[in-house]
Amino acid sequence: MAQLSSTLLYIAFVLYLIGTFFFGGAIRDKRKERQGKDRWSQFGIAVTIIGFLAQVGYFVTRWIAAGHAPVSNLFEFTTFFGMMLVAAFIIIYFIYRLSVLGLFALPVALLVIAYASMFPREISPLIPALQSDWLHIHVTTAAAGEAILAISFVAGLIYLIRVVDQSKPSKRTFWLEVVMFCLITTLGFVIVSTAFGLSGYEAKFTWIDKNKQTAEVIYDMPALVGPHKGELAKESAGRMEPLVEMPAMINAKKLNTVLWSLMAGTVLYILLRLGLRKRIAAALQPLVKNVNLDLTDEISYRAVAIGFPVFTLGALIFAMIWAQIAWTRFWGWDPKEVWALITWLFYAAFLHLRLSKGWHGEKSAWLAVIGFAIIMFNLVAVNLVIAGLHSYAGTS
Amino acid sequence: MEQVKCECGHVNPHGTAFCESCGKPLVDLGERPLLDMRYEGSARRSQTYKKTIIDQIWAFFSSVKVGVALIVITLVASAIGTIFPQQMYIPPNVDPAEYYKQQYGWAGKLYYELGFNNLYGSWWYILLIALIGVSLVICSLDRVIPLYRALKRQGVKRHPHFLERQRLFGVSHVSDLDKTMAVLKERLAARRYHVREEGGHLLAEKGRFSRWGPYVNHIGLIIFLIGAMLRSVPGMYTDRVMWIPEGETKEIPGTNGRYFLKSEKFIFETYEKGKDNEVFNAAIDRVGNGMIAKNYQTNVVLYKRVGPVIPGAKPKLEKVKEYPIRVNEPLKFDHYALYQVDFRLNEPKAMSFQLADKQSGKTFGTVTVDLYDPKESYNLGHGYRVELLSYFPDFEFDEDGNPSTKSRVPNNPAFVFKMYAPDRPKGEVSFVAIRQTIEPFGDNKYKMAFAGLQTRNVSGLTVRRDFTLWILGLGGVIFMIGLIQGMYWNHRRIWVQRINGELWIAAHTNKNWFGLKNELRRLLDGTGVAMPTDRLEEEKQAGQGGQAHGTA
């Protein structure tokens, strides 16, 4: 059952990839102004739906195998977030029929799922705090809310790529490239993790932690930065010696992974820039040339309007109810809770600026991008760096 | 207070931008082609009166700009609070000043000095939340009352200036006005519009209640904040900790001696290979067998005191219920909840010794000393007897080199025994501690040989009673209702009027113009009435130099 589950996820991944190409084809098709039905989009959405069903299959089979909904560790939660992203895209697609949305939403979902797969994937048993039906209720609703909000980012991104003037460098082109760079760096992380994972790289260090205790750490990438007073263990003799040693309060292993991802991202980005001979966003601009700006703006806003109540319910209200049951208090200023509050405050500000201050169009699109950055920060940095009560097991 | 009388006869309050009834602009709009429909042009107090200090405070807090600024400041402050752990999450037995400096260097020191270690409880953070609360109240009152007035008093017949200044507006010539109007009326009603007709003009409206969504959700938030404030009122909120060892009955703190709890057993389980679902094997292997917690559970019996409280007397108890308290499954009774939060395994409970002859090794019976409640004398029969002269639960030598105890907790128990035997009627004194025996008065014939340690588990439980929960819940429910009401519905209005033999149509929605346009398209399909143009889009297109637009 667990094997079948993994296979289904793999199938879903491949189908989303194919779907992306179909949606790409739909754009090309429209540029030629062909008459008649848009076959590319139809295939695209069909493939996407089949992919989504495959991923639902992954979810259900894994649930049956484990006996609990697969949303209990970073891999499972992030994968589920990707699945909800696709679901949100499918719904929005049937409201607005905008193919270009698929061309951008599916790659984001692909990146999310690929990123998820870099973490321990085995089915883990539930610790006592997670043994509750609220695990399913809270986590699924929160993920659904975040996924719908992410669609707002996708639409906002399309809006910005279309509207930002690429003829001369400016603050806007710079920040848009930063967004592109972040997406590419995520890809970089996936590539280096996969590459070193396949090669089976392992280097064991003994080091002195901040409580002055000797500890061991196993790197799965060559050490650019080593742990505090780290020394390669005997069995790892011959592995790369760290270039720089970190103080004890910094988690050198995680920093090392970040550095490798940044390096891979930078190399990829430079190669792309050299190949395209223009900014990434400028290269994407022709794809969105025919996009109706008002419609994109409306989708971006609509996604927030739909997603915000879902997010509030899942990430705050259900979260509080469960926290009251499991941790004795509905609110404890745990970093993950605080970042959910920050996300909520941000989108509340977004809605007020839009509804009362008339921040439409480009301003609104930038806000959608920032909102997604906050969600991603909560998903990535808060779990891996800040780590409070919510830090899932298995992110060593 | 002066009032403004419109040419249609309706009297508007001072400060109204366009007539509540017919919509005729009352102020000079200049070249502006579109009306600002956000609050129906109603006279908001904050926009109208700016003289006194109260007016100015009111105007300040009613500003969305100020509200958003408060939200953003709170957001940034909250984020700062997550840079390093808050004081409640650092080990309780360390000096925070030292801790932050030692763990996080100069940045940690600065963090502590700025008071960010208790950021969410700081006066300024609470003040920020309070200001948001004030802003919520004033913003809502400033808008909702005039908005309610304007929507209630809106007329069916609108002034041409009102219609032509709507975002969706169009004029059509139709052959049979009466028939077209009738068809439109029917179609609008079929689309669940509430249609009013007056003098041959139509006003179709739906989803007006969604306009109240923001105010409903603000009320919810205010109730929630009030609930959070009430926690600091004495009696509303109890939060106590109790440590209870297996086998003991203790008064539950915070219940004023009304409830008692007995712990039957504490259970700690881990996931083990072979015993649990084998799909978990890989995960168990990675972390280590027996390293992933599966269950923390205290089996308890809850008792209630019967009869009056008599100091010094043993309370009379009546069993209420048995319950296994587990994480996620607190024991609930009489508004109290008891949670499994902590535990200590294998705490020493009692020590056993055998009275033995040092040379022959022969033993003469076992003495078991309860480490919390030791007896003074232990009779072993046949003339053998042991007296406990002194007991040091947490033994150390004090400054003068005399034996003493650090605490009442039996971390390192030591005993002074006096052993009596038929051949030692005056007794022998022996000092017994862990791994050491001292015979202060010379060689003894007998010794107390260590024969075992009984341990027990201790459960850490949290006792909570929170009378604010229902207020918070109510606030949350109202907030969600308001949010859904405001976000998932929209307020659409369509005006159809005959003016000079032409059919004028104008439409407005508070959001989702895409949906409104689709609806209009379906509504007007086949009626011969032209689809109203989106004048905002037109304007933009003109601004962009006529760039081509794609499909909508």
TrEMBL record, chain A:
Entry membrane topology: Multi-pass membrane protein
Subcellular location field: Membrane
Pfam families linked to this entry: Cytochrom_C_asm (PF01578)
Superkingdom, natural source: Bacteria
Name under which the protein is recorded: C-type cytochrome biogenesis protein CcsB
Gene: ccsB
Keywords assigned by UniProt, alphabetized: Cytochrome c-type biogenesis, Membrane, Transmembrane, Transmembrane helix
Organism lineage: Bacteria, Bacillati, Bacillota, Bacilli, Bacillales
Main location: membrane
Start and end residues of each Cytochrome c assembly protein domain: 72-178, 282-390
InterPro entries from the UniProt entry: Cyt_c_assembly, Cyt_c_biogenesis_CcsA, Cyt_c_biogenesis_CcsA/CcmC
Ranges annotated as spanning the membrane: 6-28, 40-65, 77-96, 101-119, 139-161, 173-198, 258-276, 303-326, 338-355, 367-393
From TrEMBL, chain B:
Stretches assigned to the ResB-like domain: 64-428, 443-520
Taxonomic lineage: Bacteria, Bacillati, Bacillota, Bacilli, Bacillales
Tree of life domain: Bacteria
Name of the protein: Cytochrome c biogenesis protein ResB
Subcellular location: Membrane
Signal sequence, start to end: none
InterPro entries: Cyt_c_bgen_Ccs1/CcsB/ResB, ResB-like_domain
Keyword annotations from UniProtKB, A to Z: Cytochrome c-type biogenesis, Membrane, Transmembrane, Transmembrane helix
Keyword presence, Cell wall biogenesis/degradation: no
PANTHER family linked: CYTOCHROME C BIOGENESIS PROTEIN CCS1, CHLOROPLASTIC
Membrane topology: Multi-pass membrane protein
Transmembrane segments: 57-84, 123-145, 215-233, 467-489
Pfam families: ResB
